Amino acid sequence: MLATDLAYAAGIIDGEGSVSIRKRKERSTYAGYINVSMCEQQAVEFLHATFGGHMNLQKPRADRPKHRQQFHWGIPAVQAARFAEIILPFLKVKRAQAINLIELQEINRSIAEDTRKQRCRMHPAFFGPARIGKFTIDPALAKRATELYDEQKKLNHRGSHDALPNNSSPAPTPSQSSGEDTDKPAAGTAPAAPFSMGVR
Questions:
Q1: Which of 61, 112, 116, 176 has the least CB density, counted as fewest CB within 10 Å?
Q2: CATH of residue 129
Q3: Four-residue CA torsion sign, 56, 81, 153, 88
Q4: What is the pTM of this model?
Protein backbone atom coordinates (compact mmCIF):
# COMPACT_ATOMS: atom_id res chain seq x y z
CA MET A 1 0.00 0.00 0.00
CA LEU A 2 1.31 3.43 -0.92
CA ALA A 3 2.29 5.81 1.86
CA THR A 4 0.41 8.55 0.00
CA ASP A 5 -2.80 6.52 0.29
CA LEU A 6 -2.28 6.15 4.04
CA ALA A 7 -1.58 9.86 4.39
CA TYR A 8 -4.72 10.68 2.41
CA ALA A 9 -6.81 8.32 4.57
CA ALA A 10 -5.37 9.87 7.74
CA GLY A 11 -6.29 13.32 6.46
CA ILE A 12 -9.88 12.23 5.92
CA ILE A 13 -10.06 10.78 9.44
CA ASP A 14 -8.48 13.88 10.99
CA GLY A 15 -10.90 16.19 9.21
CA GLU A 16 -14.15 14.26 8.81
CA GLY A 17 -13.80 11.05 10.81
CA SER A 18 -14.72 9.78 14.25
CA VAL A 19 -12.55 7.37 16.24
CA SER A 20 -14.69 5.94 19.01
CA ILE A 21 -14.80 3.29 21.71
CA ARG A 22 -18.25 1.88 22.30
CA LYS A 23 -19.70 -0.33 24.97
CA ARG A 24 -21.12 -3.74 24.15
CA LYS A 25 -23.91 -3.90 26.68
CA GLU A 26 -24.67 -7.57 26.28
CA ARG A 27 -21.08 -8.53 27.14
CA SER A 28 -20.00 -5.57 29.29
CA THR A 29 -16.94 -5.13 27.07
CA TYR A 30 -15.82 -2.44 24.64
CA ALA A 31 -15.09 -2.24 20.91
CA GLY A 32 -13.36 0.29 18.71
CA TYR A 33 -15.04 1.87 15.72
CA ILE A 34 -13.95 4.37 13.07
CA ASN A 35 -16.42 6.07 10.77
CA VAL A 36 -16.69 8.90 8.26
CA SER A 37 -19.72 10.83 6.95
CA MET A 38 -19.16 13.05 3.91
CA CYS A 39 -20.92 14.49 0.91
CA GLU A 40 -17.92 13.64 -1.29
CA GLN A 41 -18.59 10.18 -2.70
CA GLN A 42 -15.12 9.64 -4.16
CA ALA A 43 -13.34 9.99 -0.80
CA VAL A 44 -15.69 7.56 0.94
CA GLU A 45 -15.46 5.06 -1.91
CA PHE A 46 -11.67 5.25 -1.65
CA LEU A 47 -11.79 4.28 2.04
CA HIS A 48 -14.19 1.41 1.36
CA ALA A 49 -12.31 0.06 -1.65
CA THR A 50 -8.91 0.34 0.04
CA PHE A 51 -9.60 -0.64 3.65
CA GLY A 52 -12.90 -2.53 3.61
CA GLY A 53 -15.58 -1.85 6.17
CA HIS A 54 -19.19 -0.84 5.52
CA MET A 55 -20.43 1.88 3.17
CA ASN A 56 -23.89 3.24 2.47
CA LEU A 57 -25.80 6.31 1.35
CA GLN A 58 -28.06 8.49 3.47
CA LYS A 59 -30.45 10.62 1.46
CA PRO A 60 -31.77 13.94 2.78
CA ARG A 61 -34.86 13.82 4.95
CA ALA A 62 -38.14 14.75 3.28
CA ASP A 63 -38.45 17.83 5.48
CA ARG A 64 -34.93 19.01 4.56
CA PRO A 65 -34.87 18.86 0.74
CA LYS A 66 -32.00 21.38 0.45
CA HIS A 67 -29.60 19.14 2.38
CA ARG A 68 -27.12 17.13 0.35
CA GLN A 69 -26.99 13.36 0.49
CA GLN A 70 -24.20 11.91 2.64
CA PHE A 71 -22.02 8.87 2.18
CA HIS A 72 -21.13 6.88 5.28
CA TRP A 73 -18.19 4.54 5.84
CA GLY A 74 -17.32 2.60 8.96
CA ILE A 75 -14.92 -0.08 10.12
CA PRO A 76 -15.31 -2.00 13.41
CA ALA A 77 -13.28 -3.73 16.12
CA VAL A 78 -10.22 -5.64 14.87
CA GLN A 79 -10.35 -4.02 11.42
CA ALA A 80 -10.55 -0.58 13.03
CA ALA A 81 -7.46 -1.27 15.13
CA ARG A 82 -5.49 -2.49 12.11
CA PHE A 83 -6.55 0.59 10.16
CA ALA A 84 -5.58 2.87 13.06
CA GLU A 85 -2.15 1.24 13.27
CA ILE A 86 -1.21 1.80 9.64
CA ILE A 87 -2.43 5.42 9.44
CA LEU A 88 -1.10 6.37 12.91
CA PRO A 89 2.18 7.89 11.61
CA PHE A 90 0.15 10.34 9.52
CA LEU A 91 -2.53 11.32 12.04
CA LYS A 92 -2.41 14.72 13.73
CA VAL A 93 -5.82 15.60 15.21
CA LYS A 94 -7.09 12.11 16.04
CA ARG A 95 -3.76 10.56 17.02
CA ALA A 96 -4.59 10.17 20.74
CA GLN A 97 -7.92 8.53 19.92
CA ALA A 98 -6.23 6.10 17.53
CA ILE A 99 -3.66 5.12 20.18
CA ASN A 100 -6.46 4.43 22.67
CA LEU A 101 -8.29 2.29 20.12
CA ILE A 102 -5.16 0.25 19.38
CA GLU A 103 -4.54 -0.34 23.10
CA LEU A 104 -8.15 -1.40 23.58
CA GLN A 105 -7.81 -4.02 20.85
CA GLU A 106 -4.76 -5.46 22.62
CA ILE A 107 -6.84 -5.68 25.81
CA ASN A 108 -9.64 -7.40 23.89
CA ARG A 109 -7.14 -9.85 22.42
CA SER A 110 -5.89 -10.70 25.93
CA ILE A 111 -9.45 -11.13 27.19
CA ALA A 112 -10.29 -13.41 24.25
CA GLU A 113 -7.20 -15.54 24.87
CA ASP A 114 -7.98 -15.82 28.57
CA THR A 115 -11.59 -16.76 27.76
CA ARG A 116 -10.33 -19.48 25.40
CA LYS A 117 -8.16 -20.92 28.16
CA GLN A 118 -11.08 -20.90 30.60
CA ARG A 119 -13.23 -22.64 28.02
CA CYS A 120 -10.60 -25.35 27.52
CA ARG A 121 -10.57 -26.05 31.27
CA MET A 122 -14.31 -26.58 31.33
CA HIS A 123 -16.18 -29.81 30.69
CA PRO A 124 -17.24 -30.13 27.02
CA ALA A 125 -20.88 -30.07 28.11
CA PHE A 126 -20.43 -26.43 29.09
CA PHE A 127 -19.02 -25.30 25.74
CA GLY A 128 -21.02 -22.77 23.74
CA PRO A 129 -22.52 -19.29 23.92
CA ALA A 130 -24.70 -20.17 26.91
CA ARG A 131 -21.59 -20.13 29.09
CA ILE A 132 -20.13 -16.90 27.80
CA GLY A 133 -21.46 -14.89 30.72
CA LYS A 134 -19.82 -17.29 33.20
CA PHE A 135 -16.28 -16.50 32.14
CA THR A 136 -14.32 -14.12 34.30
CA ILE A 137 -12.34 -11.13 33.00
CA ASP A 138 -9.10 -9.97 34.59
CA PRO A 139 -10.15 -6.97 36.74
CA ALA A 140 -7.05 -5.02 35.68
CA LEU A 141 -7.94 -5.46 32.00
CA ALA A 142 -11.56 -4.54 32.61
CA LYS A 143 -10.52 -1.45 34.55
CA ARG A 144 -8.13 -0.27 31.85
CA ALA A 145 -10.74 -0.82 29.13
CA THR A 146 -13.21 1.33 31.06
CA GLU A 147 -10.55 4.02 31.50
CA LEU A 148 -9.92 4.07 27.76
CA TYR A 149 -13.66 4.30 27.10
CA ASP A 150 -14.00 7.29 29.45
CA GLU A 151 -10.89 8.98 28.07
CA GLN A 152 -12.10 8.55 24.50
CA LYS A 153 -15.43 10.19 25.33
CA LYS A 154 -13.59 13.20 26.78
CA LEU A 155 -11.29 13.48 23.77
CA ASN A 156 -14.17 13.28 21.32
CA HIS A 157 -16.24 15.79 23.26
CA ARG A 158 -13.67 18.51 22.57
CA GLY A 159 -14.26 18.64 18.82
CA SER A 160 -17.44 19.11 16.80
CA HIS A 161 -16.37 16.38 14.35
CA ASP A 162 -16.37 13.70 17.04
CA ALA A 163 -20.05 13.46 17.99
CA LEU A 164 -20.97 9.82 17.43
CA PRO A 165 -24.24 7.94 17.00
CA ASN A 166 -24.80 5.26 19.65
CA ASN A 167 -24.58 2.37 17.25
CA SER A 168 -21.85 0.81 15.18
CA SER A 169 -23.42 1.01 11.73
CA PRO A 170 -22.33 3.91 9.52
CA ALA A 171 -25.87 5.21 8.93
CA PRO A 172 -27.94 5.36 12.14
CA THR A 173 -31.63 4.56 12.06
CA PRO A 174 -34.26 5.12 14.76
CA SER A 175 -34.27 1.42 15.63
CA GLN A 176 -30.52 1.54 16.28
CA SER A 177 -30.51 4.50 18.66
CA SER A 178 -30.46 2.47 21.88
CA GLY A 179 -26.68 2.71 22.24
CA GLU A 180 -26.01 -1.03 21.87
CA ASP A 181 -23.07 -1.92 19.68
CA THR A 182 -22.76 -4.48 16.95
CA ASP A 183 -19.93 -5.41 14.62
CA LYS A 184 -22.40 -6.38 11.89
CA PRO A 185 -23.02 -4.05 8.92
CA ALA A 186 -26.38 -2.33 8.65
CA ALA A 187 -28.90 -3.71 6.20
CA GLY A 188 -28.20 -2.55 2.67
CA THR A 189 -24.57 -1.68 3.26
CA ALA A 190 -21.82 -2.64 0.87
CA PRO A 191 -19.78 -5.66 2.03
CA ALA A 192 -16.38 -5.39 3.64
CA ALA A 193 -13.20 -5.90 1.64
CA PRO A 194 -9.84 -6.98 3.05
CA PHE A 195 -6.82 -4.71 2.88
CA SER A 196 -3.09 -5.33 2.97
CA MET A 197 -0.86 -4.16 5.81
CA GLY A 198 2.12 -3.61 3.48
CA VAL A 199 3.34 -0.07 2.83
CA ARG A 200 5.35 1.09 -0.14
A1: 61
A2: 3.10.28.10
A3: negative
A4: 0.72
